[in-house]
Amino acid sequence: MSYPRHMIRTKILGLGSYVPERVVDNHELAFLDDRHVRQPTRQTETSDEWIQQRTGVRERRYVPNDGSVWTSDLALHAARRALADAGVDAAELDCIIFGTLSPDFHFPGTGVILQTKLGIAERTSCACFDIRQQCSAFIYGLQMADAFIRTGTYRRILLVGAELHSHALDFTTRGRDVTVLFGDGAGALVLGPVETDDPRAGVVYTSAHADGTGASDLCLKIFEIARLPYLDYDARDRDHNALMYPRMEGKRVFLHAVRGMVMSTQAALARTGMTWDDIQWFVPHQANLRINEKVAEVAGIPRDKVLNTIELYGNTTAASVPLTIDHWRQHGRVKRGDRILSSVFGSGFTWGAAIFTL
Length: 358
Ligand code: COA
Fold this sequence. Notes:
The model has no long low-confidence stretch (mean pLDDT 96). It is built from 10 helices and 13 strands. It has helices at residues 26-29, 48-55, 71-86, 110-117, 137-150, 176-179, 250-272, 289-299, 310-313, 320-330, and strands at residues 8-18, 22-25, 59-62, 95-99, 127-131, 157-163, 185-195, 203-210, 218-219, 247-248, 281-284, 339-346, 350-357. The two termini are 19 Å apart. It is of the alpha/beta class. A hairpin with a 3-residue loop joins strand 12 and strand 13 (350-357). It has 2 domains: 8-196, Peroxisomal Thiolase, Chain A, domain 1; 203-219 and 245-357, Peroxisomal Thiolase, Chain A, domain 1 (3-Layer(aba) Sandwich). The protein binds coenzyme A.
């Protein structure tokens, strides 16, 4: 929704991100086994040329393969950086909104685990939400945070997106269409209220959309709850463990992503009356460089305003937008006070857009 002049608006108080140290380039990826160990022979039939040409991805980050890192740990690093950037103590948080498709466990959600790792578990007045909108989680979460803050429900919200994809990818030719796309990482915002008459301050606009008929076009089932037993395969049996890995109708996802991101971007401008003169940066979800180039072309977005990081991090799903903004802030391109239009698309299908001032 778009807002009239109002005293309380949602301000972005801080931003932070984190990626693990291990860099896996396209060449190495082809030789990794499912324990992420480089083998002498190729495990996946793919090439650096194919991956770069079709997706733009050059390399991505993976957590160590020793079982020591959880999704909540990636989130913790990003959250601490965002809190430090905001000058907010973790104990001040009264809400955590955690977006991920790779939670630590099936339940409980990873928000409560992050709360404990932040050392604020005794702060029982901190509500913890987990949201399940995959690559659209950042916009869905921002809309939730904005509504909570504007209604006075919470005053200090941590919105975090974190993904540990590398443990749930198929390192064989069977899974190559999906495996080459994804990487591990996290991004976080700290949000709070500000009293202002400036209608362009803080979060200016958010919109969230869904079309559930696309649910099976990009999904990771792992189990089917209708069945008894609900999980009935040997995870190590390659002929029967396909449910363990994401499946994707790549072309359908591509087309719907372009359409959803173009439409939500155009609607964001129309509803706010803004033009690209009012906006410094377009930060699309980082799914595929070709999707982002097509969106920019069709929506008439000035090329020098488009920020990407997919070359370096691949698709980090719920983390991709805050990670991209923070990456370019660290490189001096994005600055406090810049206005950003972000648009996203993800599994569900879900999509949306937002305009906000950093
Ligand atoms: N390396 C080499 N070849 C690959 C490959 C890989 N990693 N992945 C797929 N191929 C092969 C296919 O098997 C196919 O071979 P075939 O012609 O012998 O059957 C060929 O490349 C073409 O596959 P196709 O699926 O038509 O390619 P594409 O141009 O559609 O590109 C994607 C595939 C996955 C890159 C593309 O569809 C895409 O990016 N879709 C959107 C994905 C996305 O954004 N997902 C996340 C949304 S949040």
